Amino acid sequence: MSVETTPLISVEGLVTEFRTEGGLVRAVNGIDFTIPRGGTLAVLGESGCGKSVTGLSLLNLIRPPGAIAGGRITYYGMEGGKPVEITSLPPTSEAMRKLRGSEIGMIFQEPMTSFDPLYTVGEQIIETLMAHKRGLSRAAARAQAIEMLAKVRLPSPEILVDRYPHQLSGGMRQRVMIAMALSCGPKLLIAEEPTTALDVTTESQILDLLQNLQQELGMAVMFITHDLAVASEMADEVVVMYLGYVVERGPVEDVLNNPSHPYTQALLESVPRLDADSKERLRTIEGMVPTPDQMPRGCPFHTRCRHFMPGICDTALPPLYAAGPDHEARCVLVAPDFAKEPA
Amino acid sequence: MIEAAPNLLEVRGVSKTFTLSAGLFRRDTGVVRALDDISFSVPAGSTVGLVGESGCGKSTMGHVIMGGLKADAGEIVFTDPEQGPVNLVGAGKQTLRHVRLNMQMIFQDPNASLNPRMRLFDLIAEPLVINKVLSGKALEERVVQLLEQVGLSPRYMFRHPHALSGGQRQRVVIARALALNPQLVVADEPISALDVSIQAQTLNLLKDLQQERKLTYLFIAHDLGVVNHFTDTTVVMYLGRVMETGVTREVFRQPLNPYTEALIGSVPRIGGHKRGRRVVSTGEVPSAAKPPGGCHFHPRCPYAQDICRKEVPALREIRPGRQSRCHFAETLELHGMTSEPASAPVPH
Amino acid sequence: MTELAAAGALAPATADADAGTAKVLSVRQLAWRKFRKNRLAVFGLVVLALMYLSAAFAGFLAPYGDRETHAQFARVGPHGLNLVDTEGQFHLTPFVYGLERTMDRKTFKQVLTVDTEKRYELRWLVKGAPYTLLGFIKSDVHLFGVEGDGKLFLLGTDSKGRDLFSRILYGAQVSLTVGLVGVALSLFIGISVGLITGYYGGWFDEIVQRIIEMTLAFPQIPLWLALAALVPPTWNSIQIYFAISLVLSILSWGALARQVRAMVLSLKTSDFVRAAKYANASTGRIMFKHLLPGTMSHVLVVATLTIPAMILGETALSFLGLGIKPPMTSWGLLLNEAQSVQVILELPWLLFPAVFVVLTIISFNFVGDGLRDAADPFSR
Asked: Smaller CB count within 10 Å for chain A: N or C?
């Protein structure tokens, strides 16, 4: 699958910090990636790796005590092709508000929290539409809302449009949220754990729906997930994060079939597979993710790494080394000159 | 495998109905058949998986076995090492108290199942103290030993659970469940609240403990990958009914029920393939309060016929050791895991 | 087992690593940390601590006894301490001027004049009216007073010539504690009823709930009045004191019982209570080891917020003449003297007790607020 087209959004050296009682915590520590038009990027990692904060940073939705402390996020999807630097826009500015929704949409794990329980789902979609499209009449907005509900394959949309969120099942709510996020035709959809709260059969339907809509509408998707399988099935490219750093990134097939970073390798081996026959012990990643105030020196993963080399891994942060075409990993084992030294 | 081993636990035709009530005068507004004629057996020393989506009744089953909920009908026969077979349905308080020394439960969310106001020592020692098994120095030694067995440092002993990570808390839950040296452990989604890398650690721990102590597990889960890895036999449930049972590997390779096929087909896989179109069921799990008539799965089943709408299929033995609740179990050609070759990644 | 061993080898390192951080704070420390963050709550706590301390040591802190009258000096307005005299001369020790009562020849009204000729210096630890401290220490030493014939009425005197400041301190002994006794009583009833109804439910619960609804629906003041009127006039002050606390708690246990019941209802289906049941825990153990401690932090908050209501209740009853009776004194009783507009116009300082009531109640509310934050130390 070729995705070598112009970028839709690029992130360079993004740093997002949070002021806490224990001092300044870097949730995102200088990450870079680009998402091409119509492409799909999966940001993969465990809880606390900074993947959610990355998503919110893209929308400039980091609220105090957090703040984007460095780096640049540039959006190239505006009409006329003029790049917009998101990081230079004030979070509450008119331009930023326009960008959210009409250019970049977002969906979350638990749809219920993003709905107002006092309004019907139709009213909420209409509200979104009218806020972003000037001069749209209420009747026209309602027609569009029904159209959107049909687009996310909800049965009898003209009835559902007048239902309240609590009257819908989990899967239906997720569909409505997708409809709402897509109502203004964004070119990028940020989907944070969109299927984690759903049953397997429903998850499968939602993933199918997202993929179909993506092809239909030609939008790019940024998948934020902890689920390797979801990333594998949905993404073109994957970014693996650990403690705020990108530890590995590349085309999804390369990264997941031929992982280069010990963290990615261990993660893959620790997931019990449906297609595996072995009943042996799983390989595990020992210990636990350090809390952000105990950020390890050097490679962030060295405290749990199977290949930990004292004096090397705990001194300096390794850069991203090339591990293949478009494939990079932040580990000295991948460094071209490393093989010469005895391990 | 199932036939040979003596069954530690046997569930026969168990039903459980919840009555819904509403309004000022608590009028009964409906019933939920949470468990509808459930039967399966758990051989000693094995791991049986209870799989299904939310609302299928798998957790209810666990609590009915533990005696926290009373079954309306059926038998639950536990082979107690001292008392011999005991029917837990309708058993007296004394019997239940005695049986529980040999039967414990691990809960899904360690945050909820550990009293936040108690220290680890008190939490782990509680079953021993209540049942007057140990006291004083011997109790303390036992708690230290249990902590070490679940891979926690005894120096955590006088901390409160909030000072531990989620994975460590679940280890405390496991230590507590094992304090009385039970034969059977009912594990209700023991890893689904944990982070990916912690899940594997916990599964390995459970497996090690099973080998060391000859434990029998009833493993309640929704994650098919985990069930495939961890269990010997599988019971697939849907809306309060058993849809299929059998040796795990066989069930996943060659399902004999369309619901099992739909479940397997729905699971996203790591394989380096982008998602392709699959045969998955349409629609969502209906509300347990208003299940469809006939076969509960018929509205979502691609193979449904007229008979499926009208008649409830019986859970029948289709092959030795394989049961399915489907009118067409013998004739349908269903796809399991074998239809897609496993392509395990090779780490360099 | 090798990997388990590896985990064990790693454990000490991680344990040491987090030993130095805030993560191993006890629940209580965490709660205190949260409480401290609420500045108003800390302010309230300090004020209350000062109030209760002054009430406990009222005899020592008050320059005069609570029943000590200064017949010639009735209706004296507050007068403070001076450091600079009329000639502009600075004095190291504070002093008061002498007071002289004369008759205005035109209006025939008693007029108090300040005699700047006489200066009385403030003295520490002077002997005065005898008192009993904390019920067993007899003494007649007062923290401060003025020498000789001088009088020190910081907040003025009432119509009988009693020092208001001293009486407010003595009144605090009743006003501040009647709430505590009342709350203790309603806590006891409320917690017991809440625990039992919440745990067992059923018809008993239904009946109790209806009774609680009735007590909550009753207008408070009339009921208090009716109950207080039942107190036999022959009772002595101590009996009346406890009768009043009982009256106050009769209407407030219901709300508490409901809150405890609601918490027990949610806690009893929680996994940790189930786990205790599956470990064969007895009903008593589940109630006292698992349910009760779970409600305590919340109960503490509710109790803190109930005390001010009770203080107000006592004030109201005594103000209406149905609560504390002389010779005992309380803030409500002190305010009782300021019932008519005429009195307030002439002797506005008699409203000073109200200031103390307000300050106390605000402080309790601030503390209650802070406790509410601290009650759940794990939330951020």
From this structure: C
Q: Which of A97, A88, A107 is nearest to A219 (CA)?
A: A107
SS3 of residue A110 by DSSP: coil
Helix (H, G, I), strand (E, B) or coil at A45: coil
Q: Indicate if C195 and C135 belong to the same structural domain.
A: no
CB-based contact C250:C215 (threshold 8 Å): yes
Identify whether A296 is preceded by a cis peptide bond (ω within 30 of 0): no
**Cα dihedral sign, C281-C282-C288-C290:** positive
B vs C: CB pairs below 8 A? 85
Q: Range(s) for CATH 3.40.50.300 in chain B? A: 7-22+29-237
User: Interface pTM (ipTM) of the complex?
Assistant: 0.85
Write down the pTM of the prediction.
0.80
Whether the CB-CB separation of B256 and B318 falls below 8 Å is answered with yes
- Tell me if A286 and C3 make a contact (CB, 8 A cut-off): yes
Task: Supply B12's token pair.
Answer: 């026969």
Determine contact, residues B149/B175, Cβ cutoff 8 Å. yes
* Distance from C-alpha of C328 to C-alpha of C57, rounded to nearest angstrom: 16
Which CA distances in Å does A2 have to A39, A237, A251, C246?
A: 9, 11, 10, 82
Q: Are residues A175 and A191 in the same domain?
A: no
Report the range out of A82-86, B17-21, C157-161 with the highest average pLDDT.
A82-86
Residues A200 and A91 in one domain: yes
CA C45 to chain centre: 11
- Reported as half-sphere exposure (CB side, CA atoms, 13 A), residue A268 has a value of 27
pLDDT, tens digit, 9 for 90 and up, residues A21-47 = 777 888 999 999 999 999 999 999 988
Rg over CA atoms, chain A: 21
| Pairing status of strand B241-247 against strand B233-238 | antiparallel
Nearest alpha carbon to residue B316 among B327, B331, B301: B327
Instruction: Dump pLDDT digits (tens) for B63-99.
Output: 999 998 999 999 999 998 888 888 999 888 888 899 9
The structure tokens listed for A121 are 């789902």
Give residue B27's pLDDT: 63
Could you read off the pLDDT of B252-299 as tens digits, one per residue?
999 999 999 999 988 888 875 666 655 566 777 887 778 888 999 999
Neighbouring chains to B with at least 3 Cβ pairs closer than 8 Å: A, C
The residue in chain A having the minimum alpha-carbon distance to the alpha carbon of residue B168 is: A288
Q: Do A284 and C3 touch (CB under 8 A)?
A: yes
For residue A143, the enclosing domain spans 114-185
Q: Which pair of tokens denotes residue C50?
A: 């000062």
**Helix or strand run (H / E) with residue B174:** helix B166-178
- Smallest CA-to-CA distance from C363 within C310, C315, C298, C305 is with C305
What's the rounded mean pLDDT across residues B306-312?
93
Q: Between these two residues, B144 and C150, which has the higher pLDDT value?
A: B144
Query: What is residue C309's three-state secondary structure?
Result: helix
Indicate the residue of C23, C274, C279 with minimum beta-carbon distance to B130. Answer: C279
- Tally of domains in chain A: 2
Q: Residue C343 — φ and ψ, nearest 5°?
A: -60, -45
> Which B residues 55-114 touch A at CB under 8 Å?
none
Single-letter code of the amino acid located at B248 = T
Name the more confident of B279 and C124.
C124
Can you give the residue range of the structural domain that contains C133?
Answer: 79-152
What are C14's two structure tokens? Answer: 């991680």
Determine the pLDDT at residue A97.
86
What topology is assigned to B7-22+29-237 in CATH? Answer: Rossmann fold (3.40.50)
Give mean pLDDT, residues A8-30: 88
Do A54 and A11 have their domain in common? yes
Q: What is the pLDDT of residue B277?
A: 52
Average pLDDT over residues A145-171: 88
C176 with C138, same domain? no
Q: What per-residue confidence (pLDDT) applies to C312?
A: 83
Is C102 among the domain residues?
A: yes
Distance CA C157, CA C154 (A): 9
